[in-house]
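Below is how a single chain appears once it has passed through the pipeline. First comes the sequence as given, then the structure the pipeline wrote out for it. We keep one example in the README because the format questions we get most often are answered faster by looking than by reading.
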Amino acid sequence: MLEELDYQPTPIGPVSLRRRWIPAIETDVFEVMLGDEHLMSSLFTVGETRLAELGLEWADRAALKVLVGGLGLGYTAHAALADARVASVEVAEYLAPVIDWHQRGLTPLGAALSADPRCTFRHIDFFALIAAPDQRWDAILLDIDHAPDRWLAPAHADFYGEAALARLRDALAPGGVFALWSDDGPDPAFLARLSAVFATVDAVEVPFPNPMTGGTSRCTIYRAKG
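Resulting structure:
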């Protein structure tokens, strides 16, 4: 019913990849865990896919260079690569084991992402990279923390303030787009901070079916441009 595919220590705690059979829906589900905390499940991927689709919807050029913050199970990177305008996708991932799982084909999309010449995995702290970027991107798609005020690590908190968001804006090419996934509903305070830095912002609520409850759950995709 539950198979642990890998377990490795990391600087922020042990991370594991496991596969769970859920009889109620007759489905194998892949889960990324940080200790006892769920980071990602293949049961809920609509938000990760829509992060790429909605972010790139605002991109208005060809040969797009895309930076994805957080690899997870790869659904955001995979959706970005499905856009014919995308020339390259760099994925910044802090946890080396997560990259290893994809390269070893342990995750559902790992083999496809590893084989795509447009896709590069970088073992790097996304927040450190944005603080001192080595290039500029047409789109930055971020899915690391649970929400702008619920962080995976306390050190991430400063990123969601105006000063750090301005540095992120400067890492975008002219007309570039920033998109952020959140597990919570739209936050007016965070939208206000985005608006202080970017010319155009919005927050899109994304509904998706929840087979565990039989109902509908929601996440939010923030977008910012200019």
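The helical segments are 46-57, 75-81, 96-103, 110-115, 126-131, 162-170, 188-197.

See the next section for the split statistics.
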